[in-house]
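Lab meeting prep.
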Amino acid sequence: MKFFKLPTQIHKFDDFKGFAEEFKIGEGDLVLTHQFLYDPFMKELNLGADFLMQEKYGVGEPSDEMIDQILADVTAKQYKRIIAVGGGSVIDIAKLLIFKDGKNALDMFEKKIDFIKDKELIIVPTTCGTGSEVTNISIAEIKSKHTKMGLAIDELYADYAVLIPELVKGLPYKFFVYSSIDALIHAIESYVSPNANDFTQMISVKATEMILKGYLDIIEKGEDYRLEILEDFVIASNYAGIAFGNTGVGAVHALSYPLGGTYHVPHGEANYQFFTEVFKTYNRINPDGKIKELNTFLADLLKVEEKDVYDAIENVLDKLLSKKPLKEYGMKEEEIESFTDSVLEKQQRLLANNYVPLSREDILNIYKNLYYSKDSIEEVAATRK
């Protein structure tokens, strides 16, 4: 059985200029990025590459419609390398631009093409969350199916991942928090995955420690302190990506997809909604497996009793950004049932990585608990007696 794999070569630079010089970016390269990154970091370098701005094709996370428009433009010219400089959306799109016969997003996500890679892929992340620069996964909203889908094949591994903390400095506080929470979830879901091993757990622990200690420092010293420790978060995100790239993620991601796909909730924010509720459910079902080791580690790190670790994590995260009930996103009460069925129908790839199997009732109850605020749950219960 496969134990550990990392086919991507990882580089780190102080600035974009150093990266551009060493990698000789120029003719034959397509750089997919954003105008707000191009103007301060790339424009004055006068590189001979072609630059494509994601926002030209729409805003927000990638959809099949957006990807198809970009594919139509990109396939009109032959490129040797695709270079992604951006967050998860840019990276997910760029991964789909490397195939000889890639002309339709849905065909790729449904694996209806031969995945012949004819371009090199270089990924430069500009958030501290996805870890996608070292994974073989691309995710997009498939509008016709009203959900998100993931494609996981080894051809999607980047040839090079390049870490440049300078590029993360402009990330607004809110997006810093949501993206780094995503990395924290990657690390913790990876730790309890059935596919975890000594290598992945070692990396998961380090990523978790770096992120949570960073959060505690930010809470103590103020949100601007994050700018002094960005490199720690960029590296921790990379660690978490390496870990879950080998093990997969589970129910937190699976349950977040209908919310994200239907109400266009950003990926990290949607995952934040489900994180602790899923792990409280895991812990209730089987508190004596890998999750016990995790709880011991988290309790020591947060200086709380093991039984209180998930409440303690909620408290830390809430001090960074408050979590709101699912209904405040526009979710309807009847969608508790339909989202549950959507997860069971469309997200088995992720549910296979759960710490323990979740029944339909388990998933339904997670949605119910998160749909209402604590006060409104008590009110609803009282009216139904």
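Slide two material, second protein:
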Amino acid sequence: MTKPLTGIRVLDIATFIAAPYAAAILGEFGAEVIKVEQPDGGDTFRHFGSITERGGDSLMWLSEARNKTSVTLDLRKPEGKALFLKLVAEADVVAENFRPGTLEKWGLGWQELSAVNPGLILLRISGYGQTGPYKDRPGFARIAHAFGGLSYLAGLPGGVPVTPGSTSLADYMSGLYGAIGVLVALRHRDATGQGQVVDLALYESVFRALDEIAPAFAMFGKQREREGAGTVNACPHGHFRCADDAWIAIACTTDRMFARLCEALGRPELAAPESWGLLRNRLAARDGVNALVSAWTEARTRDEVMRLCLEFEVPAAPLNSIADIFADPQFQARDNLLTVMDPDLGAVVVPGVVPKLSLTPGGVERLGPRLGDGNDRVYGELLGLSAAELAALKAKGVV
């Protein structure tokens, strides 16, 4: 089956996660993604995380560089720059996440790239974006979580702010926004022939996901603080320990949901308007409501609590470990865990493709490539270099 992005060629010259993740998403849906790496060792992301016996490549690399072809090229050398511009002329998208000004320093900024390919889409992801007083500052996901306002909210009330789940969350969020930007720009290019720059800051992706904190501060001067496992907007709405030391999430965001929970607890009278049936009453009695629910869950195993919640249609879910996830039939039914065969390592399990398309689904055909596995095909077949020319460039350290 032909995938929807078949025929789109992406040059991924970025490192680590953010822009490469955007390129990987495009690759899952048919785009040809050529990963451009330094000849000496390649992308440092190859060696980040759990190292495998496949030439020292990490599981992070195998998973996140999926479906890509690797070529080696030193963009800082004149011959490398010239060769890259030839690749740009044959591409639709370039994805990069260097510090702003780096490509310009190499003579490979937007002016030079668009001159050889006016229809090119250049995706640029950096810590603070291409403009503004902080544009030259280095940025990583943890820095974006802090600057974008997310880390301030993560943790227990009055406690130390903590990492919000994954230290790489901002990278993945920015990769998603980057892929959206590229698709929108491609749509415009198809209509007008014009390429453009997609400029994205890591912190912007984080800030965009913080629901009402901006309008609430602007309108009421309200500054949200750390709320722990709960939320100031609903009750009960948090994480509760069960008798077997497992945890469950319960989210009663409406009065009707709370009434159903009261039925599950065997205390339907608590849903009366004069009791805790109204949200404002529950918020005023938050500690008492949470204590009641905690006493109920702590007297039962997680499976028992889940059974009752499902029976009475109370929104609930277990706090899954990765071991729980591997055993859960929902993850299996949705192909959220894909087993991909690697010639050297055998079966490797990686996260599945998101989202699911009914007619043109994405896929993972192969894991992250070996360094330079596409040199002969890309430079020979695509650009027409002879074996002798390629050997000479290799001898100079250009490829």
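Talking points for slide two:
Residues 127 and 229 are 29 Å apart (CA to CA).
DSSP finds 18 helices and eleven strands in the chain.
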